[in-house]
Amino acid sequence: MYNNMQAARSSFTRESADARREALIAACASSLARNGVQGTSVRVICTEAGVSPGLLRHYYDGIDALIAATYRWTGDRVQKALADAVAAAPQTPRERLLAYLTASFVPPIADPELLSTWLAFWALTKTDPQIAKLHGEIYRDYRADLEALLSTCQPADHRLTAVALTALVDGLWLELSLGDAPFSRAEAGVLVEKWLDVLLG
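The structure corresponding to this sequence follows.
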């Protein structure tokens, strides 16, 4: 019985720690979206999360480490949304590929708050080596998944095709997330499909 109680307490502690970390990450993402990098501080994040500054320092080696963890968490959320879109698509190679490409045009990816957070990370890539490294990894993984999906449609080296499609999707996503885009989400999907046909030729 003692061992069971000890195991339950240990499990609760782990869950509580994970919940606190996620609360800090969510607060950091929210602050970056609202206040930008310059307006994001330990005090602002901890107030948003409802915790003491000491707790942030307990779980993270300063605010830079928390921002890096937040970028990774945000990238994982985007990747999950992309994977979910592919899983929900008809199981033909072309439909799965189009689902991956067009998932960026609808929530939860096409979202003004996510855009604001993402732009803060982009700004940091020029000044923070850790964020720059994470940025490279996140986009590398996106292109790798895209190349794998392209290869199921047409066996070939699709490195540059993936680069071109990533640039197109990023541009359309940016316009849609800003609001008042001169095109609809459906039209963004049509543009992607037309460019895909040209690139696969």
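The chain is about 80% helix and 0% strand.
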